[in-house]
């Protein structure tokens, strides 16, 4: 981030090439942050669906017939033998057995963590976007000044 972090005075002293490099870097950072925000949104949605499924599952009596999805459009009938325990996918192929309440708690804690991270990233992305926009304005002004002096 270097010397331009101190504000527009530092930016205005930079050459056109330096400004282009800063603009490119900040645009890249904004795009990466937006990708991260999208991933967090997607993970939060998956956890909210899982939490809803756990709530639904906890209301079903044992030995109740259910349909288990194998793919998005293929289901098989099954009997629910134990609705008090669930397996939680904690990532990288690892599963942990939890009680239904522990599973619900896990989902809620992860959702809250993701929402907190999302809010922090939104703030950072907004600041980076403002820097990118400021650099863009200064770069355009310098390019216009160079064109008119030639």
Automatic annotation (TrEMBL):
GO molecular function: unfolded protein binding
A Pfam family it matches: Prefoldin
One GO term of the biological process aspect: protein folding
GO annotation, cellular component aspect: cytoplasm; prefoldin complex
Transmembrane segments annotated in the record for this chain: none
Record-stated family: Belongs to the prefoldin subunit alpha family.
Name this protein carries in UniProt: Prefoldin subunit 5
Native source species: Sphenostylis stenocarpa
């Amino acid at each position: 981030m270097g010397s331009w972090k101190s504000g527009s005075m530092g930016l205005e002293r930079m050459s056109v090439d330096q400004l282009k490099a800063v603009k490119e870097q900040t645009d890249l950072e904004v795009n990466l942050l937006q990708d991260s925000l999208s991933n967090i949104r997607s993970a939060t949605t998956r956890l909210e669906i899982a939490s809803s499924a756990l709530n639904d599952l906890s209301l079903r009596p044992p030995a109740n017939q259910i349909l288990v999805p194998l793919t998005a459009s293929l289901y098989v009938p099954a009997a629910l033998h134990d609705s008090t325990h669930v397996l939680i996918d904690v990532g990288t192929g690892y599963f942990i057995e939890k009680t239904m309440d522990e599973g619900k708690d896990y989902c809620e804690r992860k959702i809250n963590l993701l929402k907190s991270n999302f809010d922090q990233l939104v703030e950072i992305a907004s600041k980076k976007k403002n820097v990118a926009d400021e650099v863009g304005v200064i770069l355009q002004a310098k390019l216009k000044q160079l064109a008119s002096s030639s």
